[in-house]
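Onboarding guide, step 5: your first structure request.
Type a short instruction followed by the sequence, for example:

Predict the 3D structure of this protein.
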Amino acid sequence: MILRKPDFYDTFKCIASQCTDTCCVGWEIDVDRNSQEVYNKVAGTFGEKLRANIEDGHFKLLPHDRCPFLTGGNLCEIYTNLGEGALCDICREHPRFVEVYGNVMERGLGLCCEEATRLLLAGNGPLAFVSEESDEPEDELSEDDREICNEVLYEREYIFRTLADFDKPFGNRLYDAFGYTGDKPFAPLNDARGLYELLAKTESFGPAWDEALTRIKESIENAAGLQDEGYFSETESARLLAYLVYRHYAKCLFEGREEGKRNFALFFWNAVRFFTRELAGIPAFETNKASEINGIAELNSAAPEGQTAQRVKINAIKILSRQLEYSEENMELIEKELDG
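The system replies with structure tokens like these:
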């Protein structure tokens, strides 16, 4: 089997307490069977705490959906008491994901993680992938299914190559990869309100998303017309679009909605670049500056103390990824709306 990874995958390392967020709050935490067997054998007071906080295969969350083993300094008590090997599967693997398409296994990092998003945006050139041999067993596919799989992966490769061709103007690459043109900047929707209304149909993960959605609505109602302020460079945009295609497009082999999955990349990109400030929680400000440099400078001046424009962009991607990419129901809803 071929194992494929994005160019920044192997450099990822959880930044633990240095993270401004935590993946130990706001998520249901499954405890796999093997980990539960290990926890059943832990002696002493900590072993008693472990067993008392597991119910129906999950950790019993504290108020505000906080993991009972998360310390005030955002460190994991299981890690500090028992070591990394004692973490349950979901805690050890997050934010990593894996997909298998016939004889190809693909790994990646979810963009709900700020360090994963930072690494994606930090790349100096087009998104590239690393391939190596793996001993993992292949998925058994019929000859017809293998042919279809190869066709889908070939089409996806075309999108990757197109976005990576930095000799072409960015607008030409967008057109060749997605049919995207400047006369319909909010595509695959008609306008900013269309983006908002589709986002509003999704099931909220919590107050942070509700507040972001309110800010988006207010910006649309108070502005004559939203504009892309140029916070995301062409390189960042190309890498983000390619990564969204990498994570979702080939799943059409199992789920269908091929056009919806391709359009999802455009939808996510447009939502995050038109609503950067609103998603990240930055107060609105007026600007008539069109250049990327001036836009970034103004965003730097408006960002909360201790934050930079790059941090604001990361936070915007992070909250949107969490709302959409980590809900099967929300992804299905979006893709169906965008599928033809």
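Each response can be followed by summary notes, for example: The beta strands are 2-6, 54-55, 58-59, 96-101, 104-109, 129-133.
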